Amino acid sequence: MTFVSVIVPCFNEEETIVSLLNALYRQAWPLDSMEVIIADGMSEDETRKRIGLWTVNHPQMDVKIVDNPQRIIPAALNAALRAARGDIIVRLDAHSVPERTYVARCVSLLEAGKGDNVGGRWLIEPGADTWIARSIAVAAGHPLGAGDARYRYSDQPGEVDTVPFGAFRRELVERVGFFDETLQTNEDYEFNVRVRQAGGRIWFDPTIRSTYIARPTLSALAAQYWRYGFWKARMLYRYPSTLRWRQALPPAFVAGLVGGLFIWPVPWLRLLYLLAVGLYVLILAAAGMREALRRNDWALALGVPLALAVMHLAWGGGFWWSVVQRFLVDDAEQDKWRPNG
Description:
Blueprint lengths: L3 E7 L6 H9 L8 E7 L6 H11 L4 E6 L5 H11 L4 E4 L4 E3 L3 H10 L5 E9 L5 H10 L2 H4 L11 E2 L7 E3 H7 L10 H11 L4 E12 L4 H21 L6 H19 L3 H29 L4 H27 L4 H4 L7
């Protein structure tokens, strides 16, 4: 039986870590052929205490904690990888709850040669029992929020650019290297870029399913998507050919909003600007109304447009701030982001 190491980056996750451990305990994979390594960023809440109490009550599953003093996700993943004993690595998140067959399906697809890194479908759930948390969860899986990221909506398996989390053989890390610790997010996408450049395949299969707990508030959502945009810009400096249309739209939208201020004095250009903004608002409103009717939840009529707008503005704003900031740092710092080769 193949030995599997599940690696999990973690920081202040007292609200979700036990749900993840319970889901792993119920996996349709022998517990004696699996270990769980949690790379904790020196949590300041009760995360470690809850992990400790859980392991006392579930000694059948091997759970280890390794320190991540850098408190960034790629450093956590690398620390966990170095401690892992498994032939196959399954990367999960402290906000995720994998379905019972998650590990087994990952192993099966890897052994069938479907891909070098395999992953599946996110089922996104609210981070709190509030109308705005429900709206954020819906928006995170909506095409206007997810673009063509198939892992958020698709039921069709196939080769993709990236997958959330991912499962791969240990030898893949030996071939393409560890996660890039100069990035604070987008580390999975960057890793998969290197896999594809090395001739590997990234495979999506919707039968690999996990529940992802979305951010509970608009402020938390904005901070998350600001980070996404900021670090995507940094990654694109190194890999410009990886830009996709869904990633280009938010920066273009923010640039258009700012640019409108300069054309405001010209009446006909001002009219075009207002029409474009009005069309954007109508599209978001229509998306919110459709989801409200489909789910019989009228709070979504307001909440979904708000969440989508926050996602677009934060992602695009973070992107442009990263671009501006890059020109404010010294040459040595900029060298980190120059294209390889």
